[in-house]
Every structure is written in C-alpha cells, then in structure tokens.
Automatic annotation (TrEMBL):
PROSITE patterns named in the record: PROTEIN_KINASE_DOM
Protein name, per record: Kinase-like domain-containing protein
Organism the protein comes from: Thamnocephalis sphaerospora
Highest rank taxon of the organism: Eukaryota
GO molecular function, one term: ATP binding
InterPro entries xref list: Kinase-like_dom_sf, Prot_kinase_dom
Protein kinase domain span: 1-304
Gene3D superfamilies named among the record's database cross-references: Transferase(Phosphotransferase) domain 1
Record's keyword terms, sorted: Kinase, Transferase
C-alpha cells in the first residue's frame, strides 16, 4: 500500500512516510521521497524525490493511457527538440510500475523560473514587449509539439519554464506538465487535465473537444496572463480591496458556460498597445473553437515578426540578463525546494 498520502500532503513540513514504506509501494530501492504534493486530477500523485543522488519529479497514475501518452510525448519531443538548442522538455530519468497498479516516471527538476515567476519580476514597462516576442516563441514550441503528433493539454504559466544556458548564456524555454498530452490520431477527445483558470470554454459544456484548438485557447490565456497579470476569466476587480481578486468557483463555471454557449467575450480588455498582438490574442481566445486560430499560426505566418518592435528581437534575453543580477535578492527559486506544481494558483493583486 502507498504511504498515508493525505496525512503527508496536509502537513508538508512533517517527515514523509518511512523509507521502507515508500520503497515497498514504489517497488524501487533507489528513490527517497522528499516532499509529496497534493493529489492532482485523476488521482495523479507527484512528489519531489531523491533519485540516485539527484532531485527528480515523481509522477504516478493508475491511468496507463495517460502515463503512456506522457512518456511517448516526452520521448518524441526530446528527440525532435535536440537540434533546436532553445526549446526543451524535461528529461525522463526512469520509468517503472509501482505496486497497486500505479504507473510512474521520474523527470528531471527544471532549474529555472516558471513563466508565472518570470513575468512577475519583469518591469511593467517591458511586459508588453516581452509578451510580443514571447508569443512567437510559444507558438513555435506548440507547433513542434503538434507536428510531433501530440497535443500538450496543460498550457499555463506554471508549466512553462525559463532557464539559462551556462555554455552560451542563451535563454531556454522548457515545456513541462505533459500529463494532459494526447495523440493527435483521433479528434475530438476527452480532456485529461483541466488547469484552474486556464481551461477553455468548451470543456464546460462538451465531453469531447478539439484538442488542438484547446491548446490554442490555453496559449491565448497564457499570453493574456502576461499582459494583464491574471487569466482572462475567474477574476474581477474588487472596489473594497481595490484589487483584482479571484471569483467563486461557481461564478467562474457559470461565466464559462455562457461564453461557450452564447459565444460572448466576457474578459476584460487585453492590456497591450500592440495591435498585431491584440488581434492574434483575440483570435486565440475566441469562445467558439471553430472560430479560433491554431496556436502555431503566429509562428507559421510570421505575423509578429513582420515589423520590429522595441526593445528589438533580444527583449527576452535582455530581461533575463537583468534578472540574473538580481537573483540573490529575489530569493530562492521554487525548483530548489519543490518541483513544478500540477495546477495553477490564484493570482491576487
């Protein structure tokens, strides 16, 4: 049997279950659990572990199809990305089957900043330019995912990471969170993972949806998070608190059903001065999937590269160089203490 998971996740500071208990459940002797995470969707279990002396992210699920899809997607993308030098996915350190029918894999822990952390450190006057350039980068990344015959299925600010390449000081983009990935051999499909605040409208009324168009909406919502500081839905301005705060889950669900059914765009205006970026984000966030652009359209059409936009093509790298000098002041990156979280978290302003 697995360790008492609920008790462990309820009190993260307390010691995890005994090494013998973990080793028995995992059916592995070279893994030591450092910290469990709250159970994710579909019974997904995640933990920061010590794997043969290095930190790893343990992911276990009873759903063999979900497990196999993630493994196959990561393996194929690892191969397809290896010549690009700027796009990456986590390396798989081990794959095994635990007791009680759990299928597990261990991934490398990404030593960098999530997009949520990264954008919060960028000065407001630079956010528009950074989002503008990042849109093409993210569009290109999703293009390679889709041409590899997989969808991502879980695109949000907590599954996109930046890290610095010490060899040439380049900025690398790392896509994580592939537990929602599926093969593109059959459409439409049931969505596996529904990240809070980044779930498309159609998921609220349909049992099966077009997963490529679903990825597109998530890209649009992620760009919206960069320009506005919060997702397109699920947040509202509070006069009492003079801040944008999360709305109750019931209210969010009712709003998303209306968006999907009637086709209304009920999000607050996109805060960008760039009309090209604005129009592309509006297409990505179209309520009806049939009216929505695919995520890769930005990269394939070269729309956002048609003209120069201050502060030039190296905006992301310039910002990264500024941030690196501030790292000791900013604090300890999350990866040093725990792996990337499965779900997004509310952003209170």
């Amino acid at each position: 049997m697995p360790p008492n998971y609920d008790a462990i996740s309820a009190s993260p500071v307390q010691p995890a279950a005994s090494a013998d208990s973990e080793a028995s459940w995992l059916n592995q002797t070279d893994i030591r659990v450092i910290k469990w995470h709250p159970e994710g969707e579909n019974g997904l279990r995640m933990a920061l572990v010590d794997y043969t002396g290095v930190n790893g992210l343990l992911k276990c699920t009873r759903n063999v199809d979900q497990h196999n899809n993630e493994v196959m997607a990561l393996q194929k993308l690892q191969y397809n990305f290896h010549t690009l030098e700027v796009l990456f996915v986590p390396e798989i350190l081990d794959i095994f089957q635990a007791n009680d029918g759990y299928h597990c894999l261990i991934l490398e822990v990404i030593k960098g900043y999530s997009l949520r952390e990264y954008i919060s450190m960028i000065p407001e006057y630079l956010r528009d330019a950074v989002t503008y350039k990042f849109a093409t980068t993210l569009s290109s990344a999703i293009y390679f995912v889709h041409t590899s015959n997989f969808t991502h299925g879980n695109i949000n600010p907590d599954t996109i990471y930046f890290r610095s390449n010490d060899r040439n000081d380049a900025l690398e983009l790392v896509l994580t969170g592939f537990e929602g990935s599926q093969s593109l051999t059959d459409l439409p499909q049931t969505s596996i993972v529904k990240p809070k605040d980044f779930t498309p409208p159609e998921d609220f009324i349909e049992s099966k949806v077009d997963q490529r168009k679903r990825d597109a909406w998530m890209v649009g919502a992620t760009l919206y998070f960069m320009t506005n500081g919060h997702p397109p839905y699920g947040f509202a301005y509070s006069k009492k608190h003079k801040a944008v705060l999360p709305v109750p889950t019931k209210e969010l669900k009712e709003t998303m059903v209306r968006v999907a059914t009637i086709g209304d765009k009920l999000y607050a205006p996109i805060e960008t001065k760039n009309t090209l970026l604005l129009h592309e984000m509006e297409w990505l966030l179209a309520p009806k999937p049939q009216n929505r652009h695919y995520a890769e359209k930005i990269a394939l059409d070269g729309i956002l590269d048609a003209i120069e936009y201050t502060p030039t093509n190296t905006a992301l790298l310039k910002v990264w160089n500024k941030l690196k000098s501030k790292l000791p002041i900013i604090g300890t990156p999350r990866w040093q203490a725990e792996p990337p979280r499965l779900k997004g978290k509310d952003v209170s302003m």
